[in-house]
Amino acid sequence: MQIAAIQHDIVWEDPQANHTRLTPLIAQAAEIGTEMVVLTEMYATGFSMNSEAIAEPPEGQSVTFLLTQARKHGLWIAGSVPIRDKQEEKPVNRFVLAGPDGENHHYDKRYPFSYAQENEYYRAGDKAITVPINGIRYTPTVCYDLRFSDAYWPVALDTDCYLVVANWPESRRHHWKTLLVARAIENQTYVVGVNRVGVDPNVSYSGDSLVIDPLGEIVAECPPGMEATLIAEIDPNKVAETREKFPFMNDRKS
């Protein structure tokens, strides 16, 4: 399955501007036969703690944009969106995976980034999801989740590819790349890490978006510091072959 990761800048707290900027990039990926497009964390607003102003209802414009683009181009598209459910006090940082036939799968970030007080403005999700698409099992995670192996281990045997969307600061880019590779190696899965570029009011981002195979090899990467799209093939047979050849996960105790 061919997947495109779009490493893009984000106009701060302006969903409409970001939808306009991303529309041709998604179309370009679709033109070459891509079956899934992955955008970044909070793709339409930036990583803003102004949650009261930017959070949208589940059927708001940024989820609708993903659903519309998925249906228009006949592909899957992913990115995270700040979402407020009416019955909850705080919104969530929600990974949305929209499908070509109107599918709307979602995962709520389980580890809000307390270092930046995300936990004060967004509530944590409480469960993982895995979505089978064309014979490949995808498990979404969001940014800071990457630091916690316990977010990955419990679902590893049911996962062929982890999708990681992020707004990961340039100052810790080495951590980003190292942790992506570590998650691929320890779980013997593909990992697709998609990070933004540019500058928000306080932080610079270098991108460094990567696709890593089940042996921990980088098979595709975006150049740092610029908008770019990477294309990679996700092959579930390689996951099965790696686990059969190196049955390390049989020894896992938890």
Distance between the termini: 30 Å
CATH superfamily: Carbon-nitrogen hydrolase
How would you state the average pLDDT, rounded? Answer: 98
Q: Please report which band the strand proportion falls in: under 5%, 5-15%, 15-25%, 25-35%, 35-45% or over 45%.
A: 25-35%
Based on CA atoms alone, the radius of gyration comes out at 17 Å
Number of helices: 6
Which stretches are low in confidence, meaning pLDDT under 50 for 5 or more residues running?
none
Shape: globular
Care to describe what's here?
The protein is of the alpha/beta class. The chain has a single domain (2-251), classed as Nitrilase/N-carbamoyl-D-aminoacid amidohydrolase. It has 6 helices and 14 strands. The radius of gyration is 17 Å and the shape is globular. The two termini are 30 Å apart. The relative contact order is 0.16.
Short description:
With 254 residues, the protein is α/β, with parallel strands linked by helices. It is built from 6 helices and 14 strands.
For the structure shown, list the relevant keywords:
6-stranded mixed beta sheet, 254 residues, Nitrilase/N-carbamoyl-D-aminoacid amidohydrolase, 6 helices, single chain, 25% helix, alpha/beta
What secondary-structure arrangement, pairings included, does this model have?
Layout: E1 2-7, H1 15-31, E2 36-38, H2 51-54, H3 61-73, E3 76-83, E4 92-98, E5 104-108, H4 118-121, E6 131-133, E7 136-142, E8 161-166, H5 173-187, E9 190-195, E10 197-199, E11 204-206, E12 210-212, E13 218-221, E14 228-233, H6 236-245
Helix pairs in contact: 1-3
